[in-house]
Structures are given as C-alpha cells and as structure tokens.
Amino acid sequence: MENMLKDKVALVTGASRGIGKAIALSLASQGAKVAINYSSSDAAALEVCETIRKNDGTAEIFKAQVNVEEEVEAMFSSIEEKLGSVDILVNNAGITKDNLLMRMKTQEWDSVIDVNLKGAFLCTRRALKGMMKARYGKIINISSVVGFSGNAGQFNYSATKAGIVGMTKSAALELASRGIRVNAVAPGFIETDMTASLTDDVKAAYMEKIPLKSLGKAEDIAQAVIYLASPMSDYMTGQTLHLNGGLYM
Ligand SMILES: NC(=O)c1ccc[n+]([C@@H]2O[C@H](COP(=O)([O-])OP(=O)(O)OC[C@H]3O[C@@H](n4cnc5c(N)ncnc54)[C@H](OP(=O)(O)O)[C@@H]3O)[C@@H](O)[C@H]2O)c1
Q1: CATH of residue 131
Q2: pLDDT score for 197
Q3: For position 195, what pLDDT does the model report?
Q4: How far is the CA of 50 from the centre of ligand 1 (A)?
Q5: Angle between helices 119-134 and 69-82 (to 10 degrees)
C-alpha cells in the first residue's frame, strides 16, 4: 500500500542514523512530510533529507537535543512554521552508556535517563498541543527487548526502555478520548551504530539465543512503525510490538 500517510507531518527524533533514519525514509515513502531531528551529525541528517527530496518527498532537518526543553520548544515552533503541526511523533532518539552496576557512574545513569526518558516526555508533551486541537495523533515510542528481559551491563538503559512502556500505557489512557493513539515498538538486536561496537563474541552469543538466527535490520523496525502510524492500526493503543527474531517472548 502506498501513500497511506499523505500530507501527514511526522517528526522522527534521532533520524540521522540507524533505526530513526530507516523510519524517516519509510514515512516519507508513504507520503508523510518528515521532520528529521538529530543531535550533532549535520552531514548525516542532511543526507537523509536529500534522499527523501530526491524521491519527490518533503523533509526538513531540525538539530535539537531532545532532553533540553528550550531546544524542543524551538524545534516544534520551527516544524510548525515549515511543515505544519505534528500528526505523527516517533520518539526514537536514544543512547547507551553501558557499565556493570557496581561501576556505573552517576553521570552514566543521569545522561541515559535524560535522553531516553526526559527526551520522550518533552517531545510528547509539546506534540500534544497540536494533536489535542486536531483531535488526532499517532505517537510511537521506541523501547527495547532489554526493557522486558533485562540485560547485564545495561541497568540504566533497560530502566529507560521499561519506563518507555509505562509512559506509553499512561499516555494511551489519557489521550484515547482525543483520538490520539500511543504505542511502542520493542526491537531486539538490530544492526546499527549502537550495536556495531559489540565484540564478535557478544554478537555470536546473541545469535545463539535468537530462534530466527539473524540480527534485525533497521527496516524491520521501520515497517512496524509504518503500521502504527497508519490507519491500519487505528483500533490499537497502549500496546508494544516486539520485533526480536523470537529472542524474547
Ligand atoms: N540498535 C539496536 O539494536 C536497538 C535495539 C533496541 C532498541 N533500540 C532503540 O532504537 C533507537 C535508535 O537506536 P539506533 O540503534 O538507531 O541508535 P544510533 O544508531 O546510535 O542513533 C541514535 C540517534 O539518536 C540521535 N540522538 C542521540 N542523542 C540525542 C539527543 N539528545 N537529541 C536528539 N537526538 C539524539 C543521534 O543523533 P546524532 O547522529 O546527531 O548523534 C542518532 O540520530 C534508540 O531509542 C534505541 O534505544 C535500538
């Protein structure tokens, strides 16, 4: 199916690379006007934007730290001016600062909570201004398999990814009466920069545990996001779609 999201305005946070990039490209291929948010990779964000434009899509880049309130406010104002009010919000920006719990620095805890949870809070709250008025909206939060299974060395990160699920359910309850659907996607092990630094041994150990015997691709996650952003999922809210090759059931 094509053009399911024609003229909808979609903001994807952390869309310069990896999963966010794949989501931005897929949303654009369905006719959405895409706001590409990122933190520092100017050239990469511009490349995503150019790719969309070359394919006759509409896109703009917006550099902003999702965890800084003033930057989020400025980003939304600019999106509204250039593209229109946000109909679809994908809270994808996320970071890891892995360490064993005994050695985890307070700063490693704080920064991951800040970007992964506060960032999603700030963007969601600001997006509601327009969505409430429109009595329509789709919010898609990117969680992770480790928010469900836990993971040694990811005490901070797994807390945020479980937190995302709680946020998703609470927002779904609050916003259903306004026609705003809120769902989450929980990816398993996906090949991106975030997982590139893991050693071959760690990757092989994961592979052992994945029944489908392959790592996921960013495009696998993008397809699930398209489903959640489109009218195909209109009777769904407060749910999490798990895409992990069977790693966690
Ligand atoms: N890869 C996996 O296996 C996996 C599995 C489960 C869940 N996830 C989740 O999927 C999401 C995307 O992961 P990924 O693997 O694609 O990550 P990635 O390749 O490391 O890309 C992260 C993206 O987030 C942006 N970002 C980081 N901090 C930001 C901030 N403060 N404000 C705005 N943007 C910020 C980065 O922008 P810059 O390029 O400018 O730095 C980049 O675009 C994350 O929420 C992650 O937790 C990933």
Answers
A1: 3.40.50.720
A2: 83
A3: 87
A4: 20
A5: 40
Residue 186 has a pLDDT of: 98
Residue 2: the pLDDT is 82
**For residues 200-225, b (16+ Cβ closer than 10 Å) or e, as one string?**
eeeeeebeeebeeeebbebebbbebb
Helix/strand/coil for 141: strand
Residue 2 covered by a domain = no
Q: How far is the CA of 219 from the centre of ligand 1 (A)?
A: 14
Domain for residue 128, yes or no? yes
Q: How many domains does the chain have?
A: 1
**Is residue 81 domain-resident?**
yes
pLDDT of residue 1: 76
Residues having CB closer than 6 A to ligand 1 are: 13-20, 37-41, 44, 65-67, 92-95, 115, 119, 142, 144, 187, 189-190, 192-195
Angle between helix 42-54 and helix 18-29 axes, rounded to 10 deg: 20
Q: What pLDDT does 40 receive?
A: 98
Active site residue 157: yes
Distance 208 CA to ligand 1 centre (A): 25
* Spatial distance between the Cα atoms of 49 and 55, rounded to a whole number of angstroms: 10
Question: CB-based burial of residue 231 (10 Å sphere; 0-12 exposed, 13-18 middle, 19+ buried)?
Answer: exposed
Alpha-carbon distances, residue 202 vs 47, 196, 207, 213, 215 (angstroms): 31, 11, 9, 14, 12
Binned average pLDDT, 10 residues per bin, the chain of 249 residues: 93 98 98 98 98 98 99 99 98 98 98 98 98 98 98 97 99 98 98 88 90 96 98 98 98
Q: What value, to the nearest 5°, has the Cα angle with vertex 67 and ends 65 and 71?
A: 50
